[in-house]
């Protein structure tokens, strides 16, 4: 069962970062500004911290971020990305960094529109350690977030096109043909090795 989402969803495709406040349940403007600067266009806030949601929305508006409310993070896998909900969660610490883009674009190709990255931290953003160092996944995730932001309008217009058959069939390979106004978009992803643990958590 997927995580529940708020009835008011962002109006367009967004790349979001799970944010639980610092301390937990208490949003900080400096964190939201940093999330926006990293290329994200939304923050995903846990519904159990509902008391801080109003203040979060005020701060997020200042940082030009949308707010997504969810109950819990449900890690996306290469298999579940083939039939995702509109809202999906990616835990970058659980998959090899090199496969992050493939997992994201596979989900988007099959209908995901709100992609929330979850660093798995109980407090803060997870974009840097207490020593101020960024984890290995931070830069690749930021790059994908910026790509989603730049292409959000196009992504919103996409719909499923004719099925594409790959012969011979390769389990890790997925090919999706999407329709856009007066054009086609072909998304090809290969998630071979996606089950391996990341070399640098």
Percent of residues in helices: 10-25%
Oligomer: single chain
Strand order across the largest sheet? 3-2-1-5-4
The computed structural class is alpha/beta
Could you spell the SSE succession in H and E letters? EHEHEEHEHHEEE
Number of strands: 8
Give average pLDDT, whole number.
89
Poorly predicted runs are 4-10, 196-201
Tally of helical segments = 5
Terminal CA distance: 27 Å
Query: How is the main sheet built?
Result: 5 strands, parallel
Give an account of the 3D structure:
This protein has about 200 residues and is of the alpha/beta class. The chain has five helices and eight strands; from the N terminus they run βαβαββαβααβββ. It has helices spanning about 30-35, 55-60, 100-110, 140-150, 150-155, and strands at about 15-20, 40-45, 65-70, 85-90, 115, 160, 175-180, 185-190.
Which helices and strands occur, and which strands form pairs?
Layout: E1 14-18, H1 29-37, E2 42-46, H2 53-62, E3 66-70, E4 87-90, H3 100-109, E5 114-117, H4 138-150, H5 152-157, E6 159-160, E7 173-180, E8 183-190
Parallel strand pairs: 1-2, 1-5, 2-3, 4-5
Antiparallel strand pairs: 6-7, 7-8
Keywords summarizing the entry:
disordered C terminus, 201 residues, single chain, 8 strands, 3-stranded antiparallel beta sheet, alpha/beta
Quick structural gist:
The protein is of the alpha/beta class.
